[in-house]
Design brief:
Radius of gyration: 24 Å
Helix content: 40-55%
Distance between the termini: 64 Å
Number of strands: 15
Bound molecules: nicotinamide-adenine-dinucleotide
Strand content: 5-15%
Number of helices: 15
Structural class: alpha/beta
Amino acid sequence: MTNKETILNKIAQNQEVVGIIGLGYVGLPLAVNFAEAGIKVIGFEKSQEKADMINHGDNYIGDIRDAVLREVVVDTLKLEATTDETRMKECDALIIAVPTPLDKFRKPDMSYVESACIDIGRNMKPGTFVSLESTTYPTTTEDFMLPIIEEQSKHNPLANSQQPTAKGFVEGTDFWLAYSPERVDPGNKQFHTRNTPKVLGAMSDDGVEIGEALYLKAIDNIHKVSSPRVSEMVKILENTYRLVNISLINELALLSGKMDINIWEVIDAAKTKPFGFQAFYPGPGIGGHCIPLDPFYLEHIAKKYDFDLSMIHAAGHINMRMPHYMYIKIATALNSQKKAVNGSNMLFLGVAYKPNINDERESPALEIMDITAHKGGVVSYHDPYISKVKTNEGRKFNSADLSSESLAKADCVVLTTNHKDFDIDFIKKNSKLIVDLRNMVIEGSDNVFKL
Ligand SMILES: NC(=O)c1ccc[n+]([C@@H]2O[C@H](COP(=O)([O-])OP(=O)(O)OC[C@H]3O[C@@H](n4cnc5c(N)ncnc54)[C@H](O)[C@@H]3O)[C@@H](O)[C@H]2O)c1
């Protein structure tokens, strides 16, 4: 039997073992989905703490129900986690969901993907399907991953036992390489991993066929494209589309503020148009692990093609300035009460980058807190989902109580995240001054300043 026939047979009989590399916001829900479908899943983690938690059935991702994780770990024994990469040889498919952050020079930090590829090359068995899900720049799969995996597979005892000349594995026959971007939207109750269509681009037709058969176990709809670089560009397009539109509405919000026009009312009216308009909402800036980072990924590759992304630059520039504009809003609000930021008690409500989740990565709230503290504001925060934070400038805070006393003590309460848990009437009743950056206070009054 060929490698292709072997893996397709296993998939057809639910006998395949799926390895998920990186068990974070993306990897763990995917692992649970496969395990719920009755597939044996091995999760590979560099963090011993996370691997131990999973093996005890302890959940740390908000989008997964605790009972479901316990069921697949403890009852059906379909999911286990390990820090031992040599166990990759037990897997028929290896799906990578490791971080792709930026380094301190805002350049793509591909070290996690590189490390995963080294582990794969050295440990996978012949006939493995490999797919990257992490956000990255177009060409990563073919130009960055493939050479590492092929080179490292020369040190793989399973490759060399088959090929004594130490040629290693060859893509298309010994393994298949694909890119299938994760589209998870943490906190979204309607769309989750299973019912969000998945785009799949592989380096060969066989890779697409195998990838589709595999992913259909965990995801309802697969949209196939002609190459990994197309699927890589799809992911960047989706996130850049959001970036540009959020930037546009943020810019219009700032102008509207100057012109005494309520931007929220404008958007509500514009979206009555049944075609050609999609509503985006202003806010204190963009956050999370994707939208603020993706333009830098695209820029990295565009530079190699001597191409200037002028529109994306402009969009990024507007968004980067938003926290500073928000600080000016806060200072103006305090000024209206004859107070200065310097020495004022400032309570920020919400540090998560979006509502109802526990993720503060790249959150604009942290930057506004830094700017305010830098100007002498006495900063505190409350977030029902995040008990402590460290800001970009290294300031550490524990979440304060949200009570009538803490609200009354604050010279200014800043609504930075629209968590559903926030009782706006209670906040409004007990606060001296509110700066609402999320349109949470519907009925304004003299002590409410809105973006
Ligand atoms: N969080 C989101 O909403 C989201 C949405 C779509 C795409 N993405 C993308 O998916 C990727 C993963 O994001 P995330 O939010 O799940 O990150 P995360 O930090 O929550 O999880 C990544 C996990 O990978 C582990 N890890 C790192 N290197 C490893 C290695 N070599 N081997 C095994 N484990 C390793 C880390 O310990 C961590 O637990 C990123 O590229 C991100 O941009 C994230």
